[in-house]
Design brief:
about 45% helix, alpha/beta, about 240 residues, globular
């Protein structure tokens, strides 16, 4: 009997071990599907296969096709997700949201909209997507895809909560801060760093307001030093 109990315990241990290994491998394939690249430029697209899967159910504006295509490859879990990228006048340079009726549907049936502004207030004009470097374009698109990846794990009721969150600055600070983390976790840390540096230079900001910053001030979008510090904790990045 004692031998049988030991055998069962050993088998249970192996089952748990293999289950954990499977989960780790699964997450590794999703999160780090593409190699880490410090710099993307227009010519970088030659190194990436034009996979039909990343464009499945996607509507994209021609002028941003390449940057969107690269960013999408770092979010393979969104391969079949319906996403419409549209260009129109809007105050926010970029914004991601579910289509209205999507919040009542299960994740596999939802449609999302990423709005790319082509005209905004004078202060924000320098950081419109069309005015950013290609590497920064990939980074900020990766941030918006991070929102959608997160939305896909939520039920419809969450979006009501999200609307209420916009009434509190600290809640939105954490929401955007965590989305930056998600973008970095997916392998676009250098591109997000490029965007973070570029917008602060163009807006003449040393820091961007929000929560969780090392100096005790609120930090909504990760400042460059915060991005570098976070990347240094992840083995997928080599910083030198």
């Amino acid at each position: 009997m004692a031998s049988l109990k030991i055998h069962k315990g050993y088998m249970l241990f192996l089952q748990r071990l293999f289950k954990q290994l499977f989960i780790l491998l699964f997450l590794s394939n999703i999160t780090f599907a593409q190699k880490i690249n410090k710099l993307f430029c227009k010519d970088s697209t030659a190194f990436y296969t034009k996979q039909d899967t990343v464009y499945l159910n996607k509507t994209t504006p021609v002028e941003f096709n390449d940057a969107i295509h690269i960013a999408l490859q770092y979010y393979p879990e969104l391969n079949k997700t319906r996403i419409k990228f549209r260009v129109k006048k809007a105050i926010s340079p970029l914004a991601a949201r579910p289509a209205f009726w999507a919040i009542f549907r299960k994740p596999s049936k939802r449609k999302y909209i990423i709005t790319i502004s082509n005209s905004t207030i004078v202060k924000l004009t320098p950081i419109l997507l069309k005015n950013l470097s290609f590497n920064s374009q990939v980074g900020v698109i990766g941030h918006e895809l991070g929102h959608i990846s997160f939305y896909q794990s939520k039920r419809g009721i969450y979006f009501i909560k999200l609307a209420l969150m916009h009434l509190g600055k600290r809640a939105i600070d954490k929401f955007e801060f965590d989305t930056d983390k998600r973008c970095i976790n997916h392998g676009l840390g250098f591109q997000l760093l490029s965007w973070s540096k570029e917008v602060r230079t163009k807006l003449e900001l040393n820091q961007w307001g929000g929560s969780n910053s090392p100096n005790g001030k609120r930090e909504r979008y990760m400042n460059p030093i915060t991005i570098i510090n976070y990347m240094s904790t992840l083995p997928i990045y080599i910083l030198n």
